[in-house]
What does this fold into?
Amino acid sequence: MYPSLKINSARIWSNLMQLSKIGGTDDGGVNRQALTQKDFEAQELCIFWANQFGLSISHDPVGNLFFQLKGKDPSLPVVMSGSHLDTQPTGGKFDGAFGVLAGLEAVRAIIESGVSPRRGIEIVAWMNEEGSRFAPGMMGSETFAGLRTLESIKKMTDQYGVSVEEELKELEKRFSFSEKRLLGQEVFCFVEAHIEQGPILEREGFPVGVVTGIQGVRRMRVRVTGDEAHAGTTPYALRRDAIEEASRAIEKLYSIFSNDETTRFTVGRLILKPNVPSVVASEVLFSIDLRHPDSEKLAEAERRVRIVISDAMERCMHKVWCIAASDTVMFDERILQTIENVSKTLGIPSTRIFSGAGHDARQMAHCCPTGMIFVPSCDGISHNVNEYTSQDDIISGTTVLCNVLAQLANSLDLI
Ligand code: GLV
Ligand code: MN
Ligand code: MN
It folds into this structure.
């Protein structure tokens, strides 16, 4: 076992608070959308910190940012850790940011311990995990893992028609000093630290969760099309009301899925046309986020969604399509055991936990042995300005990450 390493507790917390000011909102939340000026400022601040302890900086063509501590043996694949700097529009201070800053603090603590690891350690800030500006998210990690092509990513646009390609050119100009690297690479293993975003660790009193896997998800879109008509004069028999039919479908879907806690069904966005009080709606476009820990049951739930929507239509036309589909991923048992053993040696209680939320680690599990470390979320709140994790829990999670990375970076093989 590698000697126990200590992180700088005040530094990780003050860095998290400082980063949260970039895109900070008046209500205490953070709105930092991918590939915006705020995202670039957040990257610059991380680069400023990383320069203080001599990490090398690089970007790949999809805008992922990497910080590298060289290992004693450069021929060995690196150990990688990290998360994302973008947030939901009504996001908090910890989702994503914690994983990037915990990684940087871990590497800094390893350097300060005076011991050079055998393998390099790389901390990554993946581009556009959240997918709130360019949907679907996970762009950086999916492209790195070869699950999506750079060409398809570049064509995507935000709601104002600005493309990822245009913003990547901005990024390249702004970070012209950063070394350019190719997409993808051989990685020894990947460990992401993240807030739990649910209530379990807090309820059970564990500062650290050893994540066993991530449940599968379908991100769907539904378009219901009717006709615009006068709200005062058009008899019901002559209407094709898109809101009436879409809401009937949504109501039915909630009544089915809310009886089953293992399926998570959410309609988070409605876009209405013409969205005018005295006009019968001609179009409803809505999103569906559908999740289940069992990939077969998830596929079955998707089929059910399609049937229910089709059955709910009387006069309107409809179209249902999937913009992203991921099956459940289980993490590598050897990484799980490493995290558990390190926690035990450090005297930090841990428990196994399955992730309901999606993370970049899901994509990395396609490339290399992967695992995740969770810390508790106060009241289970996340994707919300009130997201909070105590300083003590941030310190415990970062300490475990630091020691896990040090141990993995000194291992020739996983056992
Ligand atoms: C990730 O942010 C998710 O929605 O699971
Ligand atoms: Mn996240
Ligand atoms: Mn998130």
Remarks:
- The first helix runs from residue 9 to 20.
